[in-house]
Amino acid sequence: MNLQNATWIEIEKYLEKSSGIIIPIGSTEQHGPNGLIGTDAICPEVIANGVADKLNALVAPTINYGMAQHHLEFPGTIALRPSTLLTMIKDIVASLAKHGFRHLYFLNGHGGNIAPIHAGFSEFYSEQTLSPNGMSEDSTYTTLSNWWRAPSVIKLTEELYGNAEGLHATPSEVSLSYYARPDAVKQVSLSPEIAPSDCFYDAKDYRKRFPDGRIGSNPGLSSIEHGERIYHAAVDDVCQHFTEFCLTT
Predict the structure, then answer these.
(1) What pLDDT sits at residue 134?
(2) Alpha carbon 202 to chain centroid, angstroms
(3) Over the chain, what is the mean pLDDT?
(4) Angle at 81 between CA 75 and CA 83, to 5 degrees
(5) Cα(68)–Cα(26) distance, rounded to whole angstroms?
(6) Cβ atoms of 207 and 73 closer than 8 Å
(7) Cα 14 from chain centroid?
(8) Fewest C-beta in 10 Å: which of 25, 81, 101, 209?
(9) For residue 167, which of 226, 112, 228, 229 has the smallest C-alpha distance?
(10) Percent of the chain's residues with pLDDT above 90
(11) What is the per-residue DSSP string for 38-60?
């Protein structure tokens, strides 16, 4: 069930039987020569919809923007400040909690979002605790799940790509985005096949060290077929994790 395609009456009825909701969140940023700029949002969105189909769960609109300042030397990247993302997360949690959602499951596709999301959770809880009206009688539970860290996904990506998985513009995320958007598959030559891997500082330093946008990866190994396998592995793991999370009291 998709929040955007439902009426408030349907949501009210949903809340009579479930207090769980999945919020996909990603980023709009470069993903190397053959990776889609929307990769980090496309991946959690397609997984969330797969989980919803299996569990009859509710999926919120995907948050397509994230904390991606380090990619801003590459055209097409759109970044939120950490403080902006933090405030957005806090407000989304507060809005959903007001209506009776008690188990808010953020399904993330971008590593740069991790710290601001957790900070947003903390800001929400802090305001609740310090409110002169006191905390809500019912607790609100929040969690962040990074789809690429799901145990089945880690095992599969090691099997498929080994040390070519890398850290950014990875073949696993590119494959999953291709599975979700088969009409957008890109065929390009990569040189070197496996990109260099190193630390970086700001956006200019990133572009200097990794001129094509990749870090330690070979997304030339990506395929729709691999993406389908990764999709099913991720959906199964997230189904289990989301179900267990919704039992939190």
Answers:
(1) 54
(2) 22
(3) 96
(4) 170
(5) 10
(6) yes
(7) 24
(8) 81
(9) 112
(10) 96
(11) THHHHHHHHHHHHHHHHHT-EEP
**Does residue 49 register a pLDDT over 80?**
yes
Q: Using alpha carbons, list the distances in angstroms from residue 93 to 19, 100, 120, 158, 175.
A: 13, 11, 9, 35, 31
Asked if 227 contacts 148 with a C-beta cutoff of 8 angstroms, the reply is no
Both tokens of 70, joined, read 């380090």
Tell the burial category of 17 from Cβ atoms under 10 Å away from its Cβ (0-12, 13-18, 19+). exposed
Burial class (CB in 10 A: 0-12, 13-18, 19+), 86: buried
Domains belonging to the chain, first-starting first, are: 3-245 (3.40.50.10310)
Q: Cα(204)–Cα(70) distance, rounded to whole angstroms?
A: 8
Identity of residue 42: I
pLDDT at 216 over 60: yes
**Residue 217 near residue 164 (C-beta atoms within 8 A):** yes
Main-chain dihedrals φ then ψ at residue 18, nearest 5 degrees? -150, 145
What are the residues facing 28 on neighbouring strands? 78
Q: Per residue in 101-140, pLDDT tens?
A: 999 999 999 999 999 999 999 999 999 887 666 555 679 9
